[in-house]
Amino acid sequence: MTAQIKKFPKAFQYWLNKRKIEEVECIISDLSGVSRGKAMPWVKFQKENKVLLPESIFYQTISGDYVDMDIKGQWTESDMFLVPDYKAAVCSPWSDDITLQVIHDVYNSDGTPHELVPRNILKKILKLYKKKGWKPVIAPEMEFYLINPNTDPTKKIEPSTGRSGRTVASRQTYSMMAVDEYGPVIDDIYDFAEAQGFGIDTIIQEGGAGQVEINLVHGDPLQLADQVFFFKRSIREAALKQKCFATFMAKPMEEQPGSAMHIHQSVVESKTGKNLFCDKDDEPSNFFYWFLGGLQKYVPSALCMMAPNVNSYRRYVANHSAPINLEWARDNRTTGLRIPVSEPIDLRIENRVVGMDCNPYLAIAASLACGYLGMVNKVNAREPVAFEAYDMERALPRSLSESLDFFEKSREMKKLFGKSFCDVFGSVKRHEAEAFMQFISPWEREHLLLNV
Length: 452
What we know:
The protein is α+β, with helices and mostly antiparallel strands. The chain has 12 helices and 13 strands.
């Protein structure tokens, strides 16, 4: 085994099993969470000190359009310098070749972290916690749909045909039979996760027809953001292997619930590992209430990073599985901020607002940033609700455009995430929102064509 291979995680070394690596994918996440990078032979990767990519990949929308912005030298195609993070490397178990995926750290030519890179944004927020002697702990929940192949975007999406040969038409929440219906896909997901060294906590049938939820084991925010980034591709590949699609759209079907990426969050002391959300009497501490207060106060300004697409806001429908409020309560799934049943040592806050269509680096950074602001500014949380909160007044922006208005006016967001990032992210997402408004939908043709 070469010295370079020994730098990679044990899971990859075990999967490799003395075989020869054939190809290496040098990857980063763009603003939308799409994997970008270069592939090269293993021999070339061994000789490379740095990989170069143009920073213009961050000026691209989800549809591939480039956005003109007031940036000096925007189109000079300046290079970013990519350096492999050997800890963030996994295999591609679906590939015919022996392939390695490696997430890279991204720097400017002067060696400083590039300010537009989502992974660097999350690192920036984690450094703020570290300076306070704090360490956040998270656990993401990934919801997605398995659907029949949809090659014509004008046609409606249908839940996938299961092993019985029938298209699932009803919701069977927590049904083990429903999980069995998609057994071949689930089996491949387990196999891919094991090969990549990912810890799956549970897999369940969610509330929608063909909707699955995977809960990941709690841990370090950066490592789990990497896992979600890798996992999306793995799940897509597992679905394709069984001749269906996996979609992470927030709301792929009108009549079905949306897909979320709930984030369980707590904060511990870096030195002792003590949960800051508990006081010495095992009661919720001031930090717990301040973190909640921060989420309640600042999430509207950061929501465009948790719900970053025009489709994201289809999910926020009253009385339809997704919260439209930022209230909190214990063991109450109608609130945007839920406190799960737990022992005091495991006291945590579940942010149920985040959509599964998010960029995991940015969504986790945004949620942790809101909690951080609450703790440092000692923002008091409102009283918990003691009833179903679905009918409460909407507390979230109703569209991507409205969400961007909050984001662009927020001094706190610019200070935490940096003006350059906020300007570029806002411009790219604003372009997407405006492009969507130029699209004429089937609803408009059906109800307005001959009636107005």
